[in-house]
Specification:
Elements: H1 3-20, H2 23-36, H3 39-59
């Protein structure tokens, strides 16, 4: 797996985790991510995860 493919895979895994996390875990992630990545990047990730959640719901994965 190339470094770009690995990074894309890790990003998808993170989004899936956000989709499946409990509300408390998601809030902890949001706090930690905001400190590490910054609030703008965290908001972007959460928005992307919301889109993925809708798609996962449509496919019956959740």
């Amino acid at each position: 797996m190339s470094p770009d493919q690995e990074q894309a895979h890790m990003h998808r895994c993170l989004l899936r985790w956000i989709c499946r996390a409990s509300p408390d875990d998601r809030e902890n992630f949001k706090e930690t991510s905001s400190r590490v990545r910054g609030e703008a990047k965290t908001a972007e990730l959460l928005s992307e995860a919301r889109e993925m959640y809708v798609e996962m719901k449509k496919r019956g994965e959740l």
